[in-house]
Amino acid sequence: MKSTAKEVRALDDRKLKILSAVVDEYIVTGEPVGSKAIMKYVNTSSATIRNEMAELEKQGYLEQPHTSAGRVPTYNGYRLYVDRLVKTNPLSKEEKAMLDGMILTDDLTEEGLVQSVSAALAELTNCAAVVSTSVPKFSVITKVEVIPTGKRMYVLLLITSSGSIKNKVCRLEFDLSSEQLEFFENFMRENLEGVSIDSLSDEMLKKLESAMGTYLLTLSPFVTGIYELSKEMAQQSVVVEGERNLLTCRDFDQNEIIRFLDNKEELKRILDQSFSGLHVMFSDETDSFVIGNSSIITSPFSKGGKTAGHLGIIGPMRLDYSKIIPYVEYFTQKISDLISDDYEDEEDGFDGK
Amino acid sequence: MKSTAKEVRALDDRKLKILSAVVDEYIVTGEPVGSKAIMKYVNTSSATIRNEMAELEKQGYLEQPHTSAGRVPTYNGYRLYVDRLVKTNPLSKEEKAMLDGMILTDDLTEEGLVQSVSAALAELTNCAAVVSTSVPKFSVITKVEVIPTGKRMYVLLLITSSGSIKNKVCRLEFDLSSEQLEFFENFMRENLEGVSIDSLSDEMLKKLESAMGTYLLTLSPFVTGIYELSKEMAQQSVVVEGERNLLTCRDFDQNEIIRFLDNKEELKRILDQSFSGLHVMFSDETDSFVIGNSSIITSPFSKGGKTAGHLGIIGPMRLDYSKIIPYVEYFTQKISDLISDDYEDEEDGFDGK
DNA sequence: TTTAGCACTCAAGAGGATAGAGTGCTAACA
DNA sequence: TGTTAGCACTCTATCCTCTTGAGTGCTAAA
Q1: Which of A94, A169, A301, B40 could form a disulfide with A332 if both were Cys (CB 3.0 to 4.6 A apart)?
Q2: B252 pLDDT band (50/70/90 cuts)?
Q3: Is the CB of B66 under 7 A from strand D?
């Protein structure tokens, strides 16, 4: 609701302490928190705490499931807690080593790394890990190749500067002469190499086709094939790892989870608004959130200094933010470091040996 | 239990009719079936039916959840029903048209087709569709290609006679000379083309490596890369479509389903024993079955006359077999027809025009 | 061999009592 | 004026009992 400056000012130190205590306790127990339980955290009587809690409720930070129950944090309560109250301790040496140990490093490809990290994150947090990999804005086509592979069968190959490869089988009505093949490869080299993936539009396609002259008659399936490949590449992808953690989480409504897992478009849209740093979202915030009572923590990772995607978790609001936030931060940093190594290596350097 | 010839002989016509009626009724209602409900199917009094049911229970075809409840089919009951009693009507023209209409035919690749059919099957049956695609035994390597794509970056490409393509990025310590590249391509062409995918063993790898002489020093990552690609290709794949139908099915134990979906190895193993025709399995049969109370119906589909995989459904035992069995049969036949068209086209023919 | 009739069983649901966790309010206190 | 002890009150969760009704097995007659 309206969290005006006045209201926030009205939150003295003790109120904040109590709010924080309620959230901390609720995160652990999952049950509405009563005034007595808070006495462990604050040095006053339960009566005083009750008074304070009643006020926190009026201000919209807490709520009661029913009259004679304890308090539960509201969306605003969580928001305040995460933004201003939660204490995230930097990871110790041992913790970092533990996290590192959970990542398989035998698969050195970018996807392999990200997949391994997200599995670790899901395992660690008992949530589902989410990864969205955006198409790097600076990604351009570096190679178009056609490989004959059978009677009238050709494999189209598209490679970009960011290292993605896609292929597609194309069947033609006729076999091509080597002259035709050569023409196509040259034509593609001249017209597509260096072109950025997401700039390949319908119009561009039309222009290309008309520039091909009579070759178009036989080669047109290749052109549309390349076009489709580029479209596939330009698509942002979202992967959810550890879905079982959502299904077994009793904070959620089963049916909602099933619906969510069945259709990840919604999630895609949410992760699309790429945020610059670590970001915590709650399900009440945007009503487009599919899963009620959920929260999403994401952080971007980068490749060669440019954002390459986002990694995070989706779980219940009742999360141990103080632990999970550093995990997400550490892992995204880790990914950035590892794939940027690769990247620099690819582009400029030569790493001695 | 022991279903000896004597016992089976003891099943006169009326008993079979009653068993069939119990299964039919139970499939619809999901509730234990009482003697009165059977009166709709058989022209005798409920008392007689009760006597018969008591005997069917003694023989192991029915059971009671508790004393004063109706009867439910046992595993043996289902087995007998499916093997000898169920009446599967051949599909009508309209039904076939309806099924055809559910298949998207704009993606003409094999995977696209199979995916579309399995989605339709899942939708239609409210079960999960399962597809296992085996590596065709006759599939051989037709092409190995290396494409330079950046500083010390190369794409390995492996193509087989059955039309699968896989690629892998390989990073070397040094750039290769064109002479080295040429050597590798020739070497691979001579040694691997025509070799069947699943015959590529560790020993073969060793032999190849030793045959490469000094080239091995720089090219060894390529060899292991190719080896890994072939291993990936040789792997039988299992895909489950429509998982949500399992999760929302109240005949199952949620946790068991979640465990099942998390680990499809078990399913893979079951589908691995490729059966020659349509096959119905029940969860009691092999104790390796992950999901209790489930049944699997599969049928093979073929490509150019040779088995290419299996398509089917996994759902509760309480299935409308009389409808679903024809669906599975029709769809696998359909797939066989469509991809075999392709295949013949690829290998021998020329379709005019 | 079949069937009507009857006593019996058992699960599921309705209703009622109880316990206990937690509250708000009042009045006393520092 | 802020804090606290005390108390009446509220509401859920749980347990127990009772009832209902579907369905059975058995017996005796047709």
Answers
A1: A301
A2: very high
A3: no
Do residue A256 and residue A128 come from a single domain? yes
Say whether pLDDT at B3 is over 60.
no
For chain A, 353 residues long, the average pLDDT of each consecutive 10-residue run is 47 93 96 96 96 96 94 96 95 97 80 93 98 83 86 86 83 86 91 87 87 87 90 89 95 92 89 85 77 93 88 96 97 91 48 34
Give the nucleotide with minimal C1' distance to the Cα of B33: D23
The H or E element containing residue A14 is helix A13-29
Q: Which residues contact A145 (CB under 8 A, 6 or more apart)?
A: A156, A157, A159, A185, B147
Give the CATH number, domain containing residue B77: 1.10.10.10
Helix, strand and coil content of chain A, in percent to the nearest 5, comes to 50, 20, 30
Q: How far apart are CA B128 and CA B138, in angstroms?
A: 30
Q: How far apart are CA B55 and CA B60, in angstroms?
A: 9
Contact between B163 and A150 using a beta-carbon 8 Å cutoff: yes
B246 neighbors B127 (Cβ within 8 angstroms): yes
Domain co-membership, B151 together with B222: yes
- Judge whether residue B5 contacts strand D, using its CB and a 7 Å cut-off: no
> Is the predicted pLDDT of residue B24 greater than 80, yes or no?
yes
Is the CB atom of residue B64 positioned under 7 angstroms from any atom of strand C?
no
d(CA B146, CA A222): 21
Structure tokens at B221: 């990552």
Indicate if B26 and B155 belong to the same structural domain: no
Tell me the percentage of chain B whose pLDDT exceeds 70.
Answer: 91
Q: Which domain holds residue A241?
A: 93-134+236-350
Instruction: Specify whether B118 is located in the same domain as B196.
Output: no
The residue of chain A nearest to residue B148, with distances taken between CA atoms, is A143
- Mutate which: A165, A174, A232, A261, vs B, most B CBs within 10 A: A165
Number of domain units in chain A: 3
Task: Tell me: do A160 and A38 sit in the same domain.
Answer: no
Over residues B216-227, mean pLDDT: 89
3-state secondary structure of A68: coil
CA dihedral sign, ordered A26, A31, A32, A38: negative
Task: Please give the residue that has the higher pLDDT: either B303 or B6.
Answer: B303
Q: Answer whether A297's CB lies under 8 Å from A261's CB.
A: no
Which region holds residue B4: left if phi is over 0, alpha if psi is between -120 and 50, else beta? beta
Q: Tell me, yes or no, whether B338 and B262 share the same domain.
A: yes
| Residue B97 pLDDT > 70 | yes
What string of DSSP letters covers B4-19? -HHHHHT--HHHHHHH
pLDDT tens track for B300-318 = 999 878 888 999 999 999 9
Instruction: For residue B27, say whether its CB is under 7 Å from any atom of strand D.
Output: no
CATH number of the domain bearing residue A206: 3.30.390.60
Q: Which residue has the tokens 């006053």?
A: A44
B258: nearest CB among A163, A165, A248: A248
Domain final position from B211, B234, B257: B234
Query: What CATH number does the domain containing B248 carry?
Result: 3.30.450.40
Verify that A76 and A179 share a domain, yes or no. Answer: no
Q: Cβ B169–A163 below 8 Å, yes or no? A: yes
Q: Smallest Cα–Cα separation from A150: which of A178, A172, A168, A167?
A: A172
Q: Which of residues 62-121 of A touch strand C (CB under 7 A)?
A: 64, 67-71
Set of chain A residues whose Cβ sits within 8 Å of the Cβ of B254: 247, 254
Last residue of a domain, one of B234, B256, B281: B234
